[in-house]
Specification:
13 strands
C-alpha cells in the first residue's frame, strides 16, 4: 500500500535545524533580557555563557525552542496543531496576566516598573538593588494563578451529561480513531491535517451531484494512492487530470475503457476473457455475464428474462466451443442470422456440443413452444441484445487490452468512462464490468509473494449498477482480498432500489461513512440519528399573579437535542463534510479540494511539465 512515511534522515536534519535556529534566536533573546546591545551574530549564546549568564541563556534558548516547536506543530496539523495553539494561547495569557500583576504592584507600591516581559523577567531573576522583594512574590503568584487558570480552561476534564453527550470529535479523539494517519484513503481535512482511513476498511460516501465528490474525494486519492485502482470516470475528468501522473510518478499501467467512445482512443475490454478454461465452470461464469447484461427490472416477469438469459448462455457456449472465445458482436450476428430458429434446432439436434442438460432442455422447450410464446421470447431476447449491434460497442469489446486478474500482481489504473448522456444505455456493460471485477478478485485470497499490491475501487454512481450478488450482504468481506471499496451514491435510496431494504443494512453497517451536503430528507434524518444527541439546558419562566401576592419562578431542566437536525445537515456549508466512524464521535471536517491544496497542485503541475 501507499506509504507517506518520511526517512529518518529527514527528522534528524529537521531536529538539528531546530536546535541551531533555537541557539541563534535564543542568543538574541538573551541579550534583550540582560539589556546588552543586540547583534545578529551566531555566537551570541556562546558569548553570554562565557560571560556567566548561563541560566539566562538556557532560558532564552528553551523559550525559543518551544516557540519554534509550536510553529512546527501548527504546520503539521492535527493534535500537534491544537496542542501548539493551546501552548501559544497559554503563553500569551500568562504574559497578559503577569502584566496585570505588575500593574497592580505599581498601583499598590507607587512604582513605575515596565510592563514589557523582558523587563520584569530580568527583574525577577536578578533582583537589582532598590527593588522591593515583594515584586518577585507578585510575579510568582501571578505565574501560579495564570497556570491554574490555563489548566481550568484547556485541561480540566469535562463533566459528562447525565442524558447524552454526543459532540463533534476533538483533535485528540480523531487521533484516537486513527484518522490522522500518514497513509490510507483520503477522506477530508480537520485541524489542518488530512484524515485518512488505514487498512482495508470500506467507505460509503453519500454525495449528491455537484457536491464535489470528484474534486474533493476521487482526485486526491488518485494522486496519493500508489497501488492499483479501478474507478468510474463518468466525465473523463479523472483520466485527463491523473492518468499521466499515475503512469509517470506512481508507475502504474493506465487504461481507459470507454465502450461508447467513437474517437478510437478507448482501450478494449471483452467480458468473455474471464470465462474459465475449465468447461465445468463455463455455466457459472457465463451466468454472471447474463445476469448483469439482462437484469430483471422491477415489475418485470422473470420468465421472459430467464428465457433470454438461457438463449444467451447457449450462444456463448457455442462460440467458445467452436472458436475458443466469444464476443458480444458474434452473439449479436449469430442471433440475427436468417432462420435463427432452424439453426438453433439443428445445433440442439446434432448432439455434437457438450452443452449442459439444462441449456439443451431450455432450448428444446423454446423450439417446441407455440408460435406466440416463441415469438415473445425472441422479441425479448432481441431487444436485450440490441446494444451489441452498435459497431462502436463491438469494436471496444472485441478483445481485452488489460486483465483485471492482474491488478494485485502489477500496478494498474483502470478508468471506466461512460458519459452522462449514455449512462442509461450502457448501464448493463458498467454493471457487468464491476460484477466481474468483484468476482475475479474474490476467487481466492491473494498470496502476497506474487500479489503484493492492494486495489482501491472507486465505485462512483454505484446506485446505477445492477445487483452484484456478492455485495448484497455488505462490503466488509473484501478486506481479506486486499480490496478497498469506496462506494459513492447520490442518495441511499439508490442502494435500496437495487438491493432492497433488508440488504441495504449491509451497506449502512459500513464502519466508515461520509456525507456531503444532502438534499434527500430521509438521508438527512438518518445521518442526524447517527450523529446522536446532546444535552441542552432549557429555562422556563412562569408568572403568577394573585390578589395578595405575585411572583416569577424560573425552572431549569436538561433536554435532549440532536447534535444536528436534518435541516442543518441539508444546509451544511458546501466545503464541509460529516464523517461517521464506528465506535467514535462524529467528525465535522473540511473537504479536501485538490485545487486548493498546494501539494496536490504541485504534483499534477509536475506531471504536466514532464
Amino acid at each position: 500500500m501507499t506509504t507517506h512515511a518520511k526517512p529518518t534522515i529527514f527528522y534528524v536534519n529537521a531536529g538539528l535545524s531546530l536546535l541551531l535556529m533555537s541557539g541563534w534566536l535564543g542568543g538574541m533573546l538573551g541579550k534583550l533580557l540582560i539589556g546588552a546591545p543586540l547583534s545578529f551574530s551566531l555566537y551570541n549564546a556562546w558569548d553570554m555563557m562565557a560571560a556567566g549568564y548561563v541560566g539566562t541563556t538556557a532560558l532564552s534558548i528553551l523559550s525559543t525552542l518551544l516557540l519554534l516547536l509550536s510553529f512546527f506543530g501548527i504546520a503539521r496539523g492535527g493534535v500537534l496543531r491544537v496542542t501548539a495553539w493551546k501552548f501559544l494561547v497559554g503563553v500569551a495569557g500568562l504574559l497578559c496576566f503577569f502584566s496585570l500583576c505588575i500593574s497592580l504592584y505599581n498601583a499598590l507600591f507607587h512604582t513605575h516598573f515596565s510592563l514589557l516581559p523582558w523587563h520584569w523577567i530580568t527583574l525577577t531573576f536578578f533582583s537589582p538593588a532598590g527593588v522591593n522583594t515583594h515584586y518577585v512574590w507578585y510575579v510568582a503568584g501571578g505565574m501560579a494563578t495564570g497556570l491554574f487558570l490555563i489548566w481550568l480552561i484547556f485541561f480540566m476534564p469535562t463533566i459528562k451529561s447525565p442524558l447524552a453527550d454526543s459532540h463533534f470529535a476533538s483533535a485528540k479523539e480523531i487521533e484516537k480513531a486513527g484518522l490522522f494517519a500518514e497513509q490510507g484513503i483520503v477522506l477530508a481535512k480537520a485541524h489542518g491535517k488530512m484524515l485518512r482511513v488505514t487498512g482495508f476498511e470500506p467507505v460509503l460516501v453519500v454525495a449528491p451531484m455537484g457536491s464535489g465528490k470528484t474534486t474533493a474525494f476521487a482526485i486526491p486519492n488518485l494522486i496519493e494512492w500508489s497501488d492499483s485502482v479501478v474507478v468510474n470516470d463518468l466525465k473523463g475528468e479523472l483520466w485527463e487530470k491523473t492518468a499521466a501522473y499515475r503512469e509517470k510518478v506512481k508507475q502504474n499501467s493506465c487504461y481507459c475503457w470507454a465502450p461508447g467512445d467513437e474517437s478510437h482512443r478507448s482501450h478494449r475490454h471483452n467480458p468473455f476473457t474471464y470465462v474459465s478454461k475449465d468447461k465445468r465452470l463455463w455455466y457459472r461464469d457465463l451466468q454472471l455475464i447474463a445476469q448483469a447484461l439482462m437484469p430483471i427490472a422491477q415489475g418485470e416477469q422473470a420468465f421472459w428474462v430467464q428465457s433470454s438469459r438461457d438463449l444467451f448462455l447457449l450462444l456463448s457456449m457455442f462460440l467458445i466451443e467452436t472458436k475458443g472465445m466469444a464476443t458480444l458482436e458474434e452473439i449479436y450476428h449469430l442471433a440475427k442470422q436468417e432462420n435463427f430458429e432452424g439453426w438453433l434446432g439443428k445445433v440442439i439436434g446434432m448432439g455434437k456440443y457438450s452443452f449442459p442438460k439444462t441449456i439443451i432442455a431450455n432450448a428444446a422447450a423454446l423450439i417446441d413452444a407455440d408460435d406466440r410464446t416463441r415469438s415473445n421470447i425472441l422479441q425479448d431476447f432481441y431487444a436485450r441484445i440490441t446494444l451489441f449491434g452498435d459497431p462502436i460497442i463491438q469494436k471496444n469489446t472485441a478483445a481485452s487490452d488489460f486483465d483485471l486478474r492482474e491488478l494485485r500482481k502489477q500496478r494498474m489504473s483502470v478508468y471506466i468512462h461512460i458519459p452522462e448522456r449514455e449512462k442509461e444505455r450502457l448501464a448493463p456493460l458498467l454493471s457487468l464490468f464491476w460484477a466481474q471485477f468483484v468476482d475475479s478478485m474474490t476467487i481466492k485470497e491473494p498470496d502476497l509473494s506474487i500479489e503484493p499490491y492492494a486495489v482501491l475501487a472507486l465505485m462512483d454512481e454505484f446506485g446505477n449498477l445492477s445487483k452484484i450478488d456478492k455485495l448484497k450482504s455488505g462490503m466488509s468481506f473484501l478486506r481479506s482480498f486486499r480490496i478497498i471499496p469506496a462506494i459513492i451514491v447520490q442518495y441511499l435510496g439508490q442502494i435500496e432500489s437495487v438491493y432492497g431494504k433488508v440488504d441495504l443494512h449491509g451497506f449502512l453497517n459500513t464502519k466508515i461513512k461520509m456525507a456531503y451536503t444532502l438534499n434527500d430528507k430521509d438521508d438527512a434524518e438518518y445521518i442526524s440519528q447517527c450523529l446522536g444527541q446532546t444535552t441542552v439546558m432549557t429555562k422556563g419562566r412562569s408568572i403568577s399573579t394573585h390578589t395578595r401576592s405575585s411572583g416569577v419562578s424560573i425552572n431549569e431542566s436538561d433536554q435532549l437535542k440532536p447534535l444536528m437536525r436534518k435541516e442543518e445537515i441539508m444546509r451544511l456549508p458546501k466545503e464541509q463534510a460529516l464523517i461517521l466512524v464506528e465506535g467514535h464521535m462524529p467528525i465535522r471536517a473540511k473537504k479536501c479540494f485538490w485545487f486548493k491544496e498546494s501539494l496536490y497542485k504541485n504534483q499534477l503541475s509536475t506531471r504536466r511539465a514532464a
